[in-house]
Structure formats: structure tokens, C-alpha cells
Write a structure and sequence with these properties.
It is a single chain. The protein has three domains: about 55-285, 2-Layer Sandwich (Beta-Lactamase); about 285-355; about 365-515, 2-Layer Sandwich (Heat Shock Protein 90), CATH 3.30.565.10. It is about 50% helix and about 15% strand. The protein has helices at about 35-65, 70-125, 130-145, 180-185, 230-280, 295-350, 360-365, 370-380, 385-390, 410-425, 485-495; strands at about 155-160, 190-200, 205-215, 220-230, 370, 395, 405, 430-440, 440-450, 495-505, 505-515. It has a five-stranded mixed beta sheet. Strands 1-4-3-2 form a four-stranded antiparallel beta sheet, with helices on both faces.
């Protein structure tokens, strides 16, 4: 069928509908309260509400999806099983449909082959010049073929012929037959074509197929068409499709239910373990998991309980050790406070009355004027072995000229030894730098490492008794935590300062500053820091 589209060009008389356009300008009145404007505003507001609610629902779904293992397993199983059942269902329905249509076609062709002999016998003697013989032959063929039915089911016979005798128009059937099929049959061939057919002479058209065969007669060609409706087959296929759909849906839901039940059996113990672990983290060390059976989940619960028991015992042991340490600290602090105060007072009295002592005793009570570089060298040499064990290099930066200071060399060397030992222990194997600086009034020694450093606020704690920067770190030299506290007291006995600063992950630096003469008062360090 051809379609003809006629287009009329502009100016040929066709009139297009006109649209009125209102002018818009500075003098045009504003129409913000029109019904269209109000409707647009409402639609925009509703759109925002919908988007907001959709975003909230999406976040809730995503949160539930990420937090629920059971939901993820159930939905994944549902989707995968649904896809598998859909593919299998489509394949089964396709195979059943093809089988039903193939059987119908085979039976129809067998019916045509059966009726061919009867048709040839009834129409062979028909003469297209004799209307009565043609009409009688057509009636005989229709009756004979209608009585020879087989497994092909119900069918109708339509007989046609291309003849120029208009008197025969009322003899043949008026039912429509596809033109392409008629051409093939008129070429003296048996042909089959799926088409819409009339199940009855006056009934509606239904899906079916037509089988046509030619029969030669005197003066013309008869075309015999068998119209096989597929209504019964369509009903059968519809029943098969519904059955497959319902069975597949039931199977998918059944598999999803099994997945939920199985996942619940696995997830529930995990949730119990998570809640128990949270209570343990909150400090309730008596929490345990109830263990049932001997399967893998039960073994996991048993191992968790053993871990919790071991953790509880370790924490109790640490608490006992902490109580012992606090008691030891209190006892040692009490025992050391009085002797240290007594020693300091005795040293001050001896130093003040050194003039009345015999010369050999006075020398032991006085400070010595000594080169500070020699004290630093002795302290560094004493730590060569420790530096080697740490894989660390100790570098010194000293002035070329002697740095003469009036100090107690043993106390200053003890301070430097404490500073060097700490720098090597916390230097992470990186170089430790010892620097000497001096001016007319003061001399200073800095010990800098490039290790773990100090956190904010720790610079004021390092000189407290028994304080350690990181108790979990392994120390090669041991220690009670009193070294820096004693070093601070030694620095104060000299009228000097012992200061510390640093940055976490960069390193720490300690600086000892002493006056160059006994009795001088320090006003500032060499780099300006108080």
C-alpha cells in the first residue's frame, strides 16, 4: 500500500493559524499574579519537595544497604535468581511455542495431502464453461474435505479461481486470502503463510495460518485454501506462559526466603559478637557470647570468649601493676624528697663556708674553671657503644676556642649523659647533634634528635619525676624516669636553666644554659629564648 503525502508550499493559499504576541517593555504591566504564574510557582515548589524527599529516601536506602548484610544477600539472591528464572522461562516458552506451532503446521500439511486426491477427483471433470458443473464440483470438494478431518483440528475451506467468466463470481468464496500466497499457489505450488483468518464465515478474524494448493480443471485452475485458526493454540500458550510466570515468581520468592533464612543464621551470631565487642570496648569485661553447638560459628564464639577472657586477665594484671607502680612512685618520692633536699642544703652550706676549710677540702667544695668542650667530649665518648647499638651517629658542633666555665664538671657531665641517653633512645636511629655556644656571660649546650619528638604540652612534663614520653617503646638503657628531674636540679644548683621543646614526628631539643662564673644571674639564652 502506497501512501501519498501532499505538502502545500508557502503562498499557495494555505493559511496557518496566527498566534497573538503581546508586547513586552518598560511600559508593559506586570502580571505576576496570573493563574499561570501561580501554577508555575506551585509546580516548582512541589518539584523541590519531591527532589528533597527522593534524596532523603535515597540516603536512607543507601545507609540501610551499606549497614545490612542480610538485605544485601537477600536482594542480590533475588535479582540473580530472578534473571536466571526469566531466561529459563523465556527459553521454555519459546521452545513450547515453537513445538506447538510446528505440530500444528505438520498436521495441517498432512490434512492438505489427504484432501488433495479427493479434490483432484471431484474437480478434474469440472468445465469452467459449464457453471453448473463448476458449482457442483465446488460443493462436492467442500463436503468431501470437511469430512476428512484429522489431528489438525478445526479448519475452513476457501475455494477461489482466477477466471474471466463473471457468472462464476458467486460460486467461489469471498473470504480474503493474502495476495502473495495466491501468487505462489497460482504458480502451481503448495504454500503456507501465517495470517489473520476468519474462524467462521461471519466471525471475527483471529491468528492462524493458510495452506493453499492448486487443482487443475478443464479451462482453468482451482485454488483451494485451508484456513486453520490458532485460537486453541494461543489459549494453550497463554496458559503455559501464566504457569511459567507463576512458577518462576514462586521459585524466586522461595529462593529469596531461603537466602534470608540462611543469612540470618550467619548474621545473627555476628551481630551478637559485634554487640558483645562494643560492650567490651565500653569497659564491661564480663561480657561473653553464648555458644551453642560445635559448628564454625560456635568455634568463632568460643575463640571470641577466650580472647575476651585473656584480655580481661591482661587488663587486671596491668591494673595491679599500675597500683604497684603508683605505690612505688609514692614511696620513692617520699624517700627521695628528704635526702635530695638535705644534699642540696649541705652543698649550699659547704659552698658558702668554703673559705674556712683547709685548702685540700676547700678545693673539693668549690667549682672548677674547666673547658666545657672537654665535658661534652667525655659525655659523647661514654655513649659511643649505645649509639652503635642504636645505629645512630652523634655529631658535635663546637667552637675552635676553649669555652671556660666555672662549674661542677661531674654534675654537668651527668646532665649531658641523661640528655644524650634520651636522644639516642627516642631518636629512631637518626643523627643526634650536640652543639656548644657561648658569649661573655653564659654558655649553652644543646642536644637535638630527629626522632619521635614531643606532643603539644609534653615539654612541661618531661622534667616530672617518673614521666616517660612513650612507655611502650623499648629502651636499651632502662631507667626509672628520674634522670631529667635530677638533671633539672643539677642545672638549678649551677644557677642555670634546662629547657626542652620539640614537635611530634620531627624531633626534640634540650638546652642546658649555665653562667660562666659562679654567682652570675642568667637573663637570656643565647638564641633569645627565656
Amino acid at each position: 500500500m502506497s501512501e501519498h503525502v501532499e505538502a502545500r508550499p508557502a503562498g499557495s493559499g494555505a493559511v496557518a493559524p496566527a498566534h497573538t504576541v503581546s508586547p513586552v517593555g518598560p511600559d508593559s504591566p506586570a502580571r505576576t499574579d496570573s493563574p499561570v504564574t501561580r501554577t508555575t510557582v506551585r509546580l516548582i515548589a512541589w518539584g523541590r519537595v519531591v527532589r528533597r524527599r527522593a534524596a532523603t529516601a535515597g540516603r536512607a536506602v543507601a545507609r540501610t544497604w551499606s549497614h545490612s548484610l542480610q538485605l544485601r544477600v537477600a536482594l542480590t539472591t533475588l535479582v540473580v535468581s530472578g534473571v536466571v528464572v526469566l531466561i529459563i522461562g523465556i527459553f521454555l516458552v519459546d521452545q513450547i511455542s515453537a513445538g506447538v506451532l510446528r505440530a500444528k503446521r505438520t498436521a495441517a500439511i498432512a490434512q492438505v495431502d489427504t484432501g488433495r486426491a479427493a479434490a483432484n477427483q471431484a474437480l478434474a471433470s469440472a468445465n469452467f464453461a459449464d457453471i453448473q458443473s463448476v458449482a457442483q464440483g465446488v460443493r462436492d470438494v467442500r463436503d468431501e474435505l470437511a469430512a476428512s478431518g484429522n489431528d489438525a483440528g478445526l479448519f475452513r475451506i476457501v475455494i477461489k479461481s482466477e477466471t474471466s467468466n463473471r457468472s462464476l463470481a458467486g460460486v467461489f468464496d469471498p473470504d480474503p486470502v493474502p495476495t502473495t500466497l495466491r501468487r505462489v499457489v497460482q504458480g502451481n505450488n503448495v504454500a503456507v503463510q501465517y495470517s489473520r483468518v476468519n474462524a467462521t464465515a461471519s466471525g471475527p478474524q483471529v491468528s492462524g495460518f493458510v495452506v493453499g494448493e492448486p487443482v487443475r480443471a478443464q479451462g482453468g485452475l482451482f485454488e483451494i485454501y485451508y484456513l486453520f485458526p490458532l485460537s486453541a493454540e494461543e489459549d494453550t500458550l497463554a496458559l503455559v506462559q501464566r504457569t511459567v510466570l507463576l512458577a518462576g515468581l514462586g521459585l524466586v520468592l522461595f529462593v529469596a526466603m531461603i537466602a534470608v533464612i540462611v543469612t540470618r543464621q550467619v548474621v545473627r551470631p555476628v551481630r551478637v559478637a559485634a554487640r558483645t565487642a562494643a560492650r567490651l570496648a565500653g569497659g564491661d569485661l564480663s561480657q561473653r557470647i553464648k555458644v551453642r553447638g560445635t559448628d564454625d560459628i560456635a568455634q568463632l564464639g568460643q575463640a571470641f570468649n577466650e580472647m575476651a577472657g585473656s584480655l580481661q586477665r591482661q587488663i587486671r594484671r596491668l591494673e595491679d601493676m599500675s597500683r604497684l607502680q603508683r605505690r612505688f612512685t609514692s614511696d620513692v618520692s617520699h624517700e627521695l624528697r628528704t635526702p635530695l633536699t638535705t644534699i642540696r642544703m649541705a652543698a649550699e652550706v659547704l659552698h658558702a663556708r668554703r673559705g674556712s676549710f683547709p685548702p685540700q677540702i676547700a678545693r673539693s667544695a668549690e667549682s672548677e674553671i674547666i673547658d666545657l668542650r672537654a665535658v661534652v667530649r667525655r659525655a659523647v665518648d661514654a655513649h659511643r657503644t649505645l649509639a652503635t647499638r642504636h645505629g645512630c651517629q652523634v655529631l658535635t658542633e663546637m667552637p675552635a676556642e676553649p669555652v671556660a666555665v666555672e662549674i661542677d664538671p661531674r654534675r654537668v657531665e651527668r646532665i649531658l649523659r641523661n640528655l644524650l641517653g634520651n636522644a639516642l633512645d627516642y631518636g629512631d636511629g637518626r643523627p643526634v647533634v650536640v652543639t656548644i655556644g657561648a658569649d661573655e656571660d653564659a654558655a649553652a649546650v644543646t642536644v637535638r634528635d630527629n626522632g619521635v619528638g614531643l606532643r603539644p604540652g609534653e615539654a612541661g612534663l618531661v622534667f616530672n619525676r617518673f614521666w616517660r614520653g612513650d612507655p611502650s617503646r623499648s629502651r636499651l638503657t632502662g631507667g626509672t624516669g628520674l634522670g631529667l628531674a635530677i638533671s633539672l636540679e643539677d642545672a638549678r644548683l649551677h644557677g642555670g636553666w634546662l629547657q626542652a621543646w620539640g614537635e611530634r614526628g620531627v624531633g626534640a631539643q634540650f638546652r642546658l644554659t649555665v653562667p660562666r662564673r659562679v654567682g652570675q644571674t642568667l637573663s637570656s639564652s643565647l638564641d633569645g629564648q627565656r
